[in-house]
Specification:
Largest sheet: none
Distance between the termini: 25 Å
Shape: globular
Number of helices: 6
Length: 140
């Protein structure tokens, strides 16, 4: 990894950490994407504004990065459609079963020293390693 990539990754990580701390400190909310998305459609309308703004900011961030650096956004289209849909459904099921996603548990939960989040994140990583290894062997 070259120095520029390292600096960009470190800056991105710092921004994610700062934004999650600010959301918790100023709004009393956890920056877990699955909870934010779920709350946009199921919670009180009074909370929809900040949730929508958060999601738009996530998407806009990729485009701001693209225009600031000139680097192309990476598009992955080499997986079969059935695999993409199956993966999305499994992630959604796992998120529901685990009471949150990697951002909520991995960034915010570990930062709060939540044992449940530490265990959940360790399981996310373990299953990710197993899945990536299995797919690599099957697809190649």
């Amino acid at each position: 990894m070259n120095t520029n990539n390292f600096l960009m990754a470190a800056a991105g990580g710092a921004l994610i950490g700062i934004s999650s701390v600010l959301l918790l400190w100023l709004n009393g909310r956890i920056a877990g994407i699955s909870g934010i998305m779920n709350g946009m459609f199921t919670r009180h309308r009074s909370e929809a504004g900040w949730r929508f703004t958060f999601v738009v900011g996530l998407i806009a961030g990729a485009f701001v990065y693209h225009y600031a650096t000139g680097e192309a956004l990476i598009e992955r289209n080499d997986y079969p459609l059935w695999m993409t849909i199956s993966g999305g459904l499994l992630v959604g099921f796992g998120t529901r079963m685990g009471s949150g996603c990697t951002s909520g548990h991995g960034i915010c939960g570990i930062g709060r020293l939540s044992i449940r989040s530490i265990v959940a994140t360790a399981l996310f990583v373990l299953v990710g390693i197993i899945t990536a290894t299995t797919l690599y062997r099957v697809m190649s």
